[in-house]
């Protein structure tokens, strides 16, 4: 089946193009507020939440919808519908949750264009459809608005853009292109690598060749703790100045954005580095643990972990890492497989196969001790070896998983803020 990827670029806009995009963004804000007013009215009168399709009629009746193409002016209605459904789910857990709020009149909203609202020329220029009212208001003689884009990463040759979203930034516009790609040609020959996902070690991988790679996540967690403390300090000052009436501010939003960007950059660099190593080692499949729902108990609520581990684990973007590995490995024909990872890190010794919990111990700094064979090893590496054995449907033999090899087969990678550097290697 086809797969989807997203590409981000910067619109190289002149004065006319900038004014046209700004005007469309202002109209999108008006349409969003119009749909939100109707959604709030229906909620107050009937107690029901209208869907995005119901709100399309309200947007269509607005005098501003002629400024945008059909699929573009329908997008704010669906945004309001999704926002209200999200608020309704949150309201079940938190009765004090506030409904979606109106956007400021001068706020520039994002505009969405589907395949009917744009064309892509052979030179790489986008041609956007413009509404009749906008052409008349701006005295624009053409039906199409050309956009030149500087992409952050090159577009794949076999990709087809099916949807674009133009997002306003500080004085410029960013474009997000959704692309559909054909089914990859999966590799049929090569080795299998198992990955144990964690906090201190985001990636602990073991291959059939016995090579072990350990990516240390201490620098990422330290950066997240720093930004959390800084945000708490600024939020405390904001609350003191407003007599506890205000909890958010522009500096807090900027700090959250910068901290999130640092984490995302580190995760992107790690997944790219790991993918390149898989290509060099002729890997055909990468097995990772299925972590969906691992942060919740059987009752659907959060697990009662200690404060510090709970804070670290809930903040680490494990699903972001898995998603990035999925599409980056697929570019090279490497399949990503998710399987159940329960009782792999401390429920079984990968050296002797012991499953007696009385003899298995998780000791200081994540070390795993087996009382049956006396082997001491990293708990995440033990989990990766057990994952590999489980996927291959056989017992973890030392010769097949490399469990008897020395630390010379271990490569440790650390994040220096810019790159992942290897500090210990074979």
Q: What does this 3D model show about the protein?
A:
The chain is of the alpha+beta class and 426 residues long. Helices cover 39% and strands 23% of the residues. The chain has ten helices and 17 strands. Strands 2-6-7-1-5-4-3 form a seven-stranded antiparallel beta sheet. Strands 12-11-8-9-10-16-17 form a seven-stranded mixed beta sheet, with helices on both faces. A hairpin with a 5-residue loop joins strand 3 and strand 4. The longest helix has 32 residues, at 15-46. The two termini are 39 Å apart.
CA-CA gap between termini: 39 Å
Shape annotation? globular
Strand order of the largest sheet: 2-6-7-1-5-4-3
Proportion of strand residues: 15-25%
Number of helices: 10
The total of beta strands comes to: 17
Rounded mean pLDDT is 85
* SSE ordering: EHHHEEEHEEEEEEHHEHHEEEEHHEE
What labels describe this entry?
single chain; 426 residues; alpha+beta; 7-stranded antiparallel beta sheet; 7-stranded mixed beta sheet; 10 helices; globular
